[in-house]
UniProtKB/TrEMBL annotation:
InterPro entries xref list: Cyt_P450, Cyt_P450_CS, Cyt_P450_E_grp-I, Cyt_P450_sf, Cytochrome_P450_monoxygenase
PANTHER family, sorted: CYTOCHROME P450, CYTOCHROME P450 MONOOXYGENASE ATNE-RELATED
Organism lineage string: Eukaryota, Fungi, Dikarya, Ascomycota, Pezizomycotina
Originating species: Botrytis paeoniae
Pfam families attached to this UniProt entry: p450
Annotated positions binding heme: C352
Family note: Belongs to the cytochrome P450 family.
PROSITE patterns named in the record: CYTOCHROME_P450
Protein name in the entry: Uncharacterized protein
Amino acid sequence: MFQPPLESTAMKLSKCVRYAPNKLSINNSDAVNEIYGFNKNMAKPEEAYAAFRVNKHAINTFNTSSKEAHRRKRRIMAKGFSDVALATYDIGGKGEKLVKSFHQRAVRIYMTSQVPLFKKLYIDRVLFPQMAKANTALADYARSYTVQRAHQHREEINRIDETETYSHVKSGNNNTSSDIMHHLLNAHDEETTSVYSNNELLGEAILLMMAGSDTTSTALTATLFYLFHNPHALQSLRSELAHIFSYSTSIRVLAVENCKYLRACIDEAMRLCPPAPTALPRVVCEGGIEVLGIHFPEGVCLGVSNFALFRNELYFKEPHRFMPERWLDNDEDSLSLARMAFKPFSVGPRHCIGQRLAIQEMAYIVAKIVYHFEFEVVGTDSEYKGLGVDENVVMEQFDVFTSLERGPEINFWAR
């Protein structure tokens, strides 16, 4: 499904569209908090999220419909995204690997062919660098999943020492940079003292690979796509990077958080091409709920489509235009209105727990690529621009619960 027709329907008909019996998509920023916020009389519909389980026992933080189970799982998962944990992840090493890989490639590349590389780098360098070396059933499953997604890029990343095992991670004797699984294997819920079971670990591992690699690669591809097609924005970003960083080696993960225009470019790309474009369904619980002053009875499914909301002209001036400057606007009213609607990582108890890690890695990788390379879009690139809206380029995006994209094809060379 290509998203613009859905967005167009939502904008033309009303702020509330019934897309199936008893299921509605609402295009309003207030509805985001009223549906997904804390202490709302809403739940995840079991029949929808059960489809995301690799087996009936591999219930994870994302696909559980039980609020109590989710609270316990998330308390354990939080250990893998604490400040202490984030400091141990090899984001910098991943960026260096990516730049090196680009240097070794031909001068013309099809950008979306790099998406598996983005995913593979995320999985191997941040999520599971030790998993790739493990000799366990969970590692075997994770490796097979990774190979299915990005087999052709395996040799370009890390050479794996097959003699090592994952046991040193679980025992806490890891002398290298850590990974998320290291923290999850050693974490417990402080309220119940329970730990993840093997099936839970499997479920969480697959969740992290999908939610982490798919969404991050979408945001990276979209950011580069819109920068390629907006030379003024690319030049403004290069000017900011040159002002802050004297050398490539001075670009550090924490330092790029100070690059305001860089963050604006990433936010604007995620607005136009949200990594999770579709409406995440919630079902009304017993007693009903009021959303936007409308009463919805038990059993009705509600949701807000990021794709539609992020292109709503009530919240964004020239909504189809790539304009990073909107996030640096001196007009506080316009900026506040935009930020109220822009929630790419969702809100409430189910918001993305890996938000900070995602922003760190995206900012670092975009900074490295833009700093190192010059770019030129090949031809008109019309095949990858989708339908276009109001003469603005639109990156073609397919809704598969997360997102699939195509293009662009570019020439690039070292600066």
